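Whether sequence alone determines local backbone shape is best considered at the level of individual chains. When preparing material for the folding task, we compiled for one chain both its residues and its backbone structure tokens. The sequence in question and its structure tokens are set out directly beneath this paragraph.
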Amino acid sequence: MERIEKILTLLKDNPTDNFLQHALALEYIKTGEDAAAKQIFLDLLERDPSYTGSYYHLAKLLERTGEQAAAINWYKRGMVEARKQNDTKAYNELEAACEDLADS
């Protein structure tokens, strides 16, 4: 909980900092607060669709909570964005995760 409190304090000065928002969502996942994490990822990606790392983590969260169709959708949206940015690493990670889920 201490890390969450530190991140929230930092966010007071810069509430739309993508890195801090992403980090907060990951901390919420660690503490089992999936709904809060999901909402942060959704808000972040709505505000800044170019933040490709959040697509993977949002989709993984959805996958883990049984929302396979939504997870596949977010993997694919992330792949589109990664391709726009020529981010081959992110694209490959999203594609592999998407294929793994689709094949299961």
In short: The chain has one domain: 2-103. The first helix runs from residue 2 to 13. The mean pLDDT is 96. The two ends are 34 Å apart (CA to CA).
